[in-house]
Amino acid sequence: xxxxxxxxxxxxxxxxxxxxxxxxxxxxxxxxxxxxxCQGGHVKLNGQRVKPAHTIRPGEVLEVQLxxxxxxxxxxxxxxxxxxAKLVARYLEDLTPPEPRPARREPPPEPLxxxxxxxxxxxxxxxxxxxxxxxxxxxx
Length: 140
What we know:
This protein is an alpha+beta fold. It has a domain at about 10-95: Structural Genomics Hypothetical 15.5 Kd Protein In mrcA-pckA Intergenic Region, Chain A. It contains 4 helices and 5 strands. The chain has a 5-stranded antiparallel β-sheet. Helix 2 (about 20-25) packs across helix 3 (about 30-40). The termini are far apart.
């Protein structure tokens, strides 16, 4: 008995739907999410929206909008059965350009007025100081 899909050739059983392939290569957690993404226009082939029933072919390049950002993937082999994460590289090539590292941010400036959390209601003197620094609206 086999422990799963051994090679791309063994996994190919004929025509494979796009939504099934997206689910099988773990781009979507469920097939219904993959179908909804196709219907919602979040999956594109050559810049055109594709339906979930589109037959996938090796060499096609897909642009997929995921929650963590857009991904561009190239189909290496059709696949109907879901495979383990380690085997996904046999069926797709990730063409997504690496994201530039964000510039290092400076730490926020120290607050002008520090009040310990849970210290209760400010005293009359503290309220005057808060108004003076602009943390409270002026008293009417």
